[in-house]
Amino acid sequence: MHDVNAFRNIHRNRFQTEPTVFAAPGRVNIIGEHTDYAEGFVMPAAIDFATLAGISPRSDGKIVIYSENYGDERVIDDAKALPAAAIKHWSDYPLGVIVTLAGEGHTMPGFSLSLWGDVPLGSGLSSSAAVEVATALAVCSILGVTYPGPVLARLCQKAENQFVGANCGIMDQFISANGAEDHALLLDCRDLSFKLAPIPHNVALVIANTMVSHSVAGGEYTSRRAEVEEACAVIARHRPEVKFLRDATPEDLKNYGHEMSPNALKRARHVITENIRTVAAAEALMHHNLKELGRLMAEAHTSYSQDFEASCVEADAMVALAQDLPGLIGARLTGGGFGGCTINLVEREHAPAFAEALGARYSSEIGIVPQIHICHAASGAHRIG
Ligand code: GLA
């Protein structure tokens, strides 16, 4: 999928030097939505779409960042005087990582960094995390440092939270840095411990893009997160040991739900039940109980759509239209919500026909031609060559 040689040529032609190249994947989340910042569980997989980062040293002390996707360059005249704030530009993401690494006490040398990626933008497949993690690996290589994957993920999350100003959790950066081929990863977002769950070879990840744009930097993500925190504060008034909704139970909702605003109650019900479903889904996957996994995904979609109200007409349609297609194991809206993609686990032999039929149904019902990709679980970020 990635033409690494063509990418090397782009860097070479632009900067007249040979780059060291790294790749970091996007992700699809199989289950566990808006649970990461509540210190709960998520179960994503890295996918074959990725960002490539090519890096080479410079002797003039500048940092030059070039994006092949945007056909645009950002120049920082002095690597020792990095900007303090984002400027709402594509370069905020790589620069945020550079600033964060500098904040770890590393003296930034000058370098040229090229970026190119095929993770569809604004479709909830973590194009931002792929850029951050690819940048982090590239810059670390030039600094001569290595961080364990979970630490690298935290640094990239910090860049997005503090520099870019998007209040995301840890899931996207974590799976991009730590994904494993042919596996989903059950992550405990409290202590970042994780288990890999093999995805059977006869199961394909079919990603269906509603073509409705999604953004974590947008207001809905932030307002949902605020409602989750509001619900948690109500429970904590009675049970101070509840620091995040991860610590709360369905029983807490029965006891204290009436003290919450109607929205906070619904958001909390989603997060609390989603944590339970995610752990159960990982069990089901590990025990090859695909029927149960599919059932949990269906329940998760209903909860995401009705209680969390993070779906949209198009995503609900994409999920509904998949239901009676041959080979479907489970379908739900994946990622931050309000558009983006659905994840469909589909028996591999049926995947091409499934993709075609779903695309045709969606086009005729919604009037938009969707992009549908048959993916497999890819490995996490790594150096190429
Ligand atoms: C976005 C965020 C993640 C996570 C998901 C929702 O992808 O970046 O941290 O909160 O939304 O599960």
Overview features:
single chain; 385 residues; alpha+beta; Ribosomal Protein S5, domain 2; four-stranded antiparallel β-sheet; binds alpha-D-galactopyranose
Report what the structure shows.
With 385 residues, the protein is an alpha+beta fold. The chain has helices at residues 4-15, 92-103, 127-143, 149-164, 171-178, 219-238, 250-256, 262-286, 290-307, 313-322, 351-366; strands at residues 20-31, 41-57, 63-67, 72-76, 111-117, 183-188, 193-198, 203-209, 328-333, 341-347, 371-375, 382-384. The strands form 2 sheets. Strands 1, 2, 3, 4, 5, 6, 7 and 12 form an 8-stranded mixed β-sheet that branches. 51% of the residues are buried. The protein binds alpha-D-galactopyranose.
Question: What does this entry show, briefly?
Answer:
This protein has 385 residues and is an alpha+beta fold. 42% of the residues lie in helices and 22% in strands.
What's the SSE blueprint?
Blueprint: H1 4-15, E1 20-31, E2 41-57, E3 63-67, E4 72-76, H2 92-103, E5 111-117, H3 127-143, H4 149-164, H5 171-178, E6 183-188, E7 193-198, E8 203-209, H6 219-238, H7 250-256, H8 262-286, H9 290-307, H10 313-322, E9 328-333, E10 341-347, H11 351-366, E11 371-375, E12 382-384
Parallel strand pairs: 3-5
Antiparallel strand pairs: 1-2, 1-12, 2-5, 2-6, 3-4, 6-7, 8-10, 8-11, 9-10
Helix pairs in contact: 2-3, 2-4, 3-4, 3-5, 4-5, 6-8, 8-9, 10-11
Bound molecules: alpha-D-galactopyranose.
